[in-house]
Amino acid sequence: MYVPATDRSRAGKPRTVSALLGSYGRDLKGWIAKLAAGYGIAAALMLVGVLAVFAAIVVGFIALFHFVALRYGEYVGFAVIGGGLLLLGIILLLVGYAMTRRKTAPLPRPRRQFRAARQMLLGNTIARAFGALHSSEAAKEAGKEAAKPDATTQILLGTAAIIAVGWIAANHLGSKAPGSRTPADQVRR
Predict the structure, then answer these.
(1) Where are the beta strands (DSSP E) in the chain?
(2) pTM reported for the whole predicted model
(3) What pLDDT score does 46 carry?
(4) Positive or negative, the Cα torsion across 41, 47, 48, 49?
(5) Is 9 within 8 Å of 16 (Cβ atoms)?
(6) Distance (Å, rounded) from C-alpha 52 to C-alpha 43?
(7) Residue 125: is it exposed, middle or buried by C-beta count within 10 angstroms (0-12/13-18/19+)?
(8) Cβ distance 78 to 65 under 8 Å?
(9) Is position 6 within any domain?
């Protein structure tokens, strides 16, 4: 089997899949560490920003209380601040309750991923099958006995056959959904 020079290790042996996956795993681990550090710093800065906003709100309430207390008295100042906070709290609770009562979206189905996997499997199977047929035809032309496809090709061809039968069955059974009528059913009625 020919392995390009870029796919060989220092000892001249082909790299294994596990070595390639290990290398990718180390790269992925370094990327995740950098990403996590960046998000950690960003979260800390946002937390300090939120605390600064809360502090500004508190200072604003103190200034409002002081203004109302100088004009109308301390009890009216407490009533204005307490009533405003109570009203804001009730509004936020009702909005939060309304948000929890809304209908949730259904769980996404992996249809797109299954289609992609099926295409990958079928494409590989078809390519191997044609490759095996081409090699057996070339062997016949050369006067040799027809070569039997290897075990992987046989497994892939069997898998393709099973998928094809499943696809035909699913399409056939899928058209017979309750309440659906075929043209033959319409003619009978």
Answers:
(1) none
(2) 0.42
(3) 96
(4) positive
(5) no
(6) 14
(7) buried
(8) yes
(9) no
